[in-house]
Write a structure and sequence with these properties.
Oligomer: heterodimer
Helix content of chain A: over 70%
CATH class of the largest domain in chain B: Alpha Beta
Distance between the termini of chain A: 36 Å
Mean pLDDT of chain B: 82
CATH architecture of the largest domain in chain B: 3-Layer(aba) Sandwich
Number of strands of chain B: 9
Structural class of chain B: alpha/beta
Number of domains of chain A: 1
Largest sheet of chain B: 6 strands, mixed
Distance between the termini of chain B: 44 Å
Number of domains of chain B: 2
Strand order of the largest sheet of chain B: 5-6-7-3-8-9
Order of helices and strands of chain A: EHHHHHHHHHHH
Shape of chain A: globular
Largest interface: A-B, 33 and 46 residues
Shape of chain B: globular
CATH topology of the largest domain in chain B: Rossmann fold
CATH superfamily of the largest domain in chain B: P-loop containing nucleotide triphosphate hydrolases
Strand content of chain A: under 5%
Helix content of chain B: 25-40%
Low-confidence stretches of chain A: 1-5
Chain lengths: ~280, ~220
């Protein structure tokens, strides 16, 4: 007996408009979960520290930067211990870079699957974002511990932290899909993205307070969308305050616009992509 | 009257200025096994991918009624670091099945593949025959309306080949349309009623399998 799913494929109707693209993501959510799990577990399957390796890098970076800028340069961050300010910034920027890079590489990395079975390709990028988000959520545990140890404490606004995380994931997904579209044709785009992400991270006040930025340059920092996400995140995570409204507006706006552009460009270019994979 | 399972009208896929397939007109019905033969690079796999929705046609139109199981490469997406069971669930989900359903089918799949007791082992420890058996067992675990088989029936030992042919026979009898790519002419004549001889993306022969096979491989005298 033929299966009861009345699927019907007609190449003429199989254009990929935005709406069906987004609906795909919902329909394939189980698969996104499985792929995210694969991305998280497989990488560290043979190591004994396992997933905790993902924490080692930001923690070690924080330790060194704390020594250099907290102790040698003596940066002051009023109202918050420097190490909390530093770690929160490092973690968020690391999350962002990892999300953009892994989702950007996801299509190329899974080309063996995509050229053999039909799956909506964007779910690989989304799964990479989900994996990065899980890693980030885990990394908030040591941050919370350090907040308690340093006496900064954990304000109730911590329950709102998923808001900036959600929008940053959306923002990263949009960029990731743009990178993924380009990376299929020019593999170099992945390396270029890595360089750009590093430059942007220096223009984000992770290890220096915004107060040391000369007035003539402040606009550069403000223009960097990552700054707004970081302000909102820091406010909720340890400040117990909400960042200025313009930060929220810039965060939500940049996330939605970038995500829709990413999905749109990706769906437009997919027909050409698949032949090259 | 003729209920079609697959209708591909002038299926064409362009790749780097080269038409991998041109002017392919084909209709395959329920319960039919259709053979595709031809030399390497003839466009056989491309044709399978177009039917399986992996490649969209550059020109022309493909219509497939019902669910498609594409065995273009067994175990696409298998990951060596993951266990047999994890791979079964992931592969089944990639084939568009419900993850929970696949999970409940793991014992049956393992049994059919003869891999009971190996499902908790990372599959990098599997032999290539074991991998092929597992891939085949997952891909054919659910009866599809259209089965695309690209040169994967020649895997495994003789016993396994017999069992996989039986499985395809059963599916056929229950109405599955099968597109079969193979270099095994004996297999084509045995399983496929009609066949197509592809060369350089064009149809060179079409009709009853024995005739088409003779066109492709003229009898030596």
């Amino acid at each position: 007996m033929p299966s009861n799913t009345v699927t019907y494929y007609d190449s003429d109707l199989a254009r990929r408009p935005l709406v069906s693209e987004l609906r795909n993501l919902w329909e394939y959510r189980d698969l996104v979960g499985l792929l995210a799990r694969r991305d998280i577990t497989v990488r560290y399957k043979r190591s004994s520290l396992g997933i905790w390796w993902t924490l080692l890098n930001p923690l070690a970076t924080t330790l060194v930067l704390w020594m250099v800028f907290g102790q040698f340069f003596r940066f002051e961050t009023p109202g918050v211990p420097y190490v909390v300010y530093l770690l929160s910034g490092i973690l968020l920027v690391t999350f962002f870079s990892q999300a953009v890079l892994t989702s950007g590489a996801a299509i190329v990395n899974n080309s063996a699957i995509l050229s053999k079975v039909f799956v909506p390709p964007e779910i690989f990028s989304v799964a990479a974002i989900a994996a990065a988000t899980v890693n980030f959520a885990l990394s908030l545990i040591p941050l919370a511990v350090i907040q308690v140890i340093t006496g900064q404490g954990i304000p109730w606004t911590v329950v709102l932290v998923p808001i900036p995380i959600f929008f940053l994931a959306l923002f990263a997904a949009g960029l990731g899909l743009l990178v993924a579209s380009a990376a299929v044709f020019f593999f170099d785009v992945l390396d270029l993205t890595g360089v750009l992400l590093q430059l942007v991270s220096y223009l984000t006040p992770t290890f220096y307070p915004i107060s040391i930025v000369p007035a003539a340059f402040v606009w550069v920092i403000y223009l960097n969308p990552l700054f707004s996400y970081l302000e909102v995140f820091r406010g909720f995570m340890y400040g117990g305050t909400a960042a200025p409204a313009w930060n929220f507006a810039y965060m939500v706006g940049s996330a939605l616009v970038t995500f829709l552009i990413g999905v749109w460009v990706f769906s437009r270019s997919w027909r050409n992509l698949i032949a090259v994979l | 009257m003729k209920e079609f399972a697959i209708r591909a009208l002038r299926r064409q896929v362009e790749y780097e200025q080269l038409w991998a397939l041109l002017a392919i007109d084909l209709e395959v019905h329920r319960g039919e096994v259709f053979g595709v033969i031809g030399p390497n690079g003839a466009g056989k796999s491309t044709l399978m991918k177009v039917v399986a929705r992996v490649l969209p046609p550059t020109e022309g139109r493909v219509r497939v009624r019902g669910s498609v199981a594409a065995m273009i490469e067994l175990g696409a997406g298998f990951n060596g670091e993951m266990t047999g069971e994890e791979n079964v669930v992931l592969y089944g989900s990639l084939l568009g099945r419900d993850a929970d359903v696949v999970r409940s089918r793991v014992p049956a799949i393992a049994e059919w593949a003869g891999l009971e007791g190996f499902m908790d082992v990372p599959i990098r420890a599997y032999s290539s025959g074991m991998l092929a058996r597992l891939g085949f067992a997952v891909a054919t675990d659910e009866q599809p309306d259209v089965l695309v088989v690209d040169e994967v029936l020649s895997v495994g030992d003789a016993e396994f080949q017999d069992r996989s042919r039986d499985r395809i026979d059963t599916m056929m009898k229950h109405g599955t349309a099968v597109l079969l790519v193979s270099h095994d002419m004996g297999l084509i004549v045995e399983l496929a009623g009609r066949s197509m001889f592809l060369d350089h993306g064009r149809i060179r022969g079409f009709g009853a399998s024995p005739d088409v096979v003779r066109q492709y491989l003229p009898p030596v005298d």
